[in-house]
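Quick note —
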Amino acid sequence: MRIVILDGYSVNPGDLSWDALRATGDVEVYDRTSPEEVVSRAEKAEIVLTNKVVLDKPTLDRLPLLRYIGVLATGYNVVHLEETRRRGIVVTNIPAYSTDSVAQMTFAHILNITNRVEHYAQENAHGRWSNNADFCYWDSPVHELSGKTLGIVGLGNIGKRVARIAADFGMDVFALTSKEPAALPQGVQKTTMEGLLAASDILTLHCPLTESTRHLIRAETISKMKHGAIIINTGRGPLVDEHDVAEALRNGHLAAYGADVLDTEPPSCDNPLLSAPNAYITPHIAWATVEARKRLISIATDNVEAFLNNEPQNVV
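Predicted structure written out below.
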């Protein structure tokens, strides 16, 4: 069985192993594949694994041997599902492999903002503490989370984990979710979008990107939030209007924005958030802990083995 991985570098830049997958067939790994290279690299493969390389209808039409597509991520919008279903190609994804990692990054951003960790570390690296008259100093407020209100948009696996951590910090937790109130984790209160915007000291986004959630956070919704609120986005970049968020940071309505995702990745140099005050942007690495990537490769291998045994799992 010929297996081609089109863009393996982001999952495994060399610190992990594909050996378990190699036991299932003849595996060829490409670090990256341009749109023009997809057909030439995959045309003889029965199994193709992809993370971000798009497999659209014109491409699928030129891959007659293809029987299985394994998406090396949870989201699978890179695959033309209508065409794969028409052709009987099995498509699988990797669900819930990065829940702990993304929840951890969510609070890394929150704690960096509220405790000014990066700011003070940089100040001290330049001698600020060494030249201080007192045993400590602060030039901007630091805040505790206990008693603050966290608003969560989307209460899937990650949202629920974030809610649990927030509760341990002593926060009041509200959520915008389709789940019934009786199904919510203990201590989480269901509310409307209007209620969430009004109540949240910190608003964190964990919902899918759909037409109804695209630019969910924009000038109109930001205006309904508390002055000095914080927004965290470890979900999808287009959940926010980046220009509107940057403007709210500049005029002070938002105290800070912490994000691991942007509308376009990698971003252009003139992305407004890269130069906005109190914007803290990490390069889409919340999912990429060593532990999460190990789980991803393990589940991807299990998915292939299940397909070869005619018992496909994690089918989308």
